[in-house]
Amino acid sequence: MPFDLRKTVLLCPKNDEESVLILQIAKSAGIPTVVSPQEHGARLELEKDLEARLKTANAQASTIVIVETPGPEREQELEKAGYKIVIIDHHRYEGLDRMKQESSLDQFLVLFELNDARLSVLGFDPFLVKGIGMMDRGWVWELAKEGIEKADRKRIMDYYQTLLEDMGGLKTGDVESARKAWDDREEQDGVIIVRSSATDPEVHIRQALSSILAEHFDEPPVTLVVEGNGRVAVQDTEKARKLHEKFGGYVFGKDLCWGFAPTADRPAPSIDEIMKVLKE
């Protein structure tokens, strides 16, 4: 192992299937772990009582491996406190580029030297684990690009669902809102525009919508998603980085997806503004 686990602690959110699997493997491998309660968009400065929680997880830790929870200033503070910081991420944020072609799951496996043999000993199917990494890079279409046969894609998708269930599964409201938004979709200049009518900020349609898109398309279409809470995202576009340069937000999915989470003093760009960039 590259790290002495007696002196290592992992900080990881539990906010998607990839992170669920990372946490499951970490637990089986005996890696001391702090689970972040934050949803997508986690920031290190929002972790409450972080140092106390790190000490509780492993009082002897001198290395912190942080998964998809950026915060350069807080990272520097932890380094001044004597910790070595190791970053696992594959996103591009405002003023912070942590984009990598490998998924965070793939990086985690390499970092902790969790090869196929080791995964098997820990009780995991290496093929399914790698499949989840592929899906995180490019959803179900990545499986086809990687040459995965249909029957095996089904196995990976079923495994994905079990990880989703570990998070409580897709909420009924998310699925219903996604279906309604899909039924009411528009198309403009080759871009599918899907708007959620849900006003509950806890309802999120993007994940459920991705499953709907996979039902209807063999290749990923460019899709603009507007959540009820004002969050916007554009999936599977070569213009993701241009959107990021123009509006900020974050880039994911191998530089092909862009998202923006609005705040009270910084609203999301309008559909017209986004479409203008996509047409350039």
Integer average pLDDT: 92
The percent range for strand residues is: 15-25%
Q: Biggest sheet, strands in spatial order?
A: 7-8-9-10-12-11
* SS summary, helix count: 11
Largest sheet: 6 strands, mixed
What CATH architecture label of the largest domain applies? Answer: 3-Layer(aba) Sandwich
What layout of secondary structure does this protein have?
Blueprint: E1 8-13, H1 17-29, E2 33-36, H2 50-57, E3 63-67, H3 72-80, E4 84-88, E5 91-93, E6 96-98, H4 104-111, H5 116-121, H6 126-145, H7 150-166, H8 172-183, E7 186-188, E8 191-195, H9 206-216, E9 223-226, E10 232-235, H10 240-247, E11 250-252, E12 257-260, H11 271-279
Parallel strand pairs: 1-2, 1-3, 3-4, 8-9
Antiparallel strand pairs: 5-6, 7-8, 9-10, 10-12, 11-12
Helix pairs in contact: 1-7, 6-7, 8-9
Quick summary of this structure?
With 280 residues, the chain is α/β, with parallel strands linked by helices.
Describe the structure.
It is built from eleven helices and twelve strands. The chain has 280 residues and is of the alpha/beta class. The chain folds into two domains: 5-119, Rossmann fold (3-Layer(aba) Sandwich), CATH 3.40.50; 172-279, Diaminopimelate Epimerase, Chain A, domain 1 (Roll), CATH 3.10.310. The strands form three sheets. The chain has a six-stranded mixed beta sheet with strand order 7-8-9-10-12-11, covered by helices on one side. Strands 2-1-3-4 form a four-stranded parallel beta sheet, sandwiched between helices. A hairpin with a 4-residue loop joins strand 11 (250-252) and strand 12. The radius of gyration is 19 Å and the shape is globular.
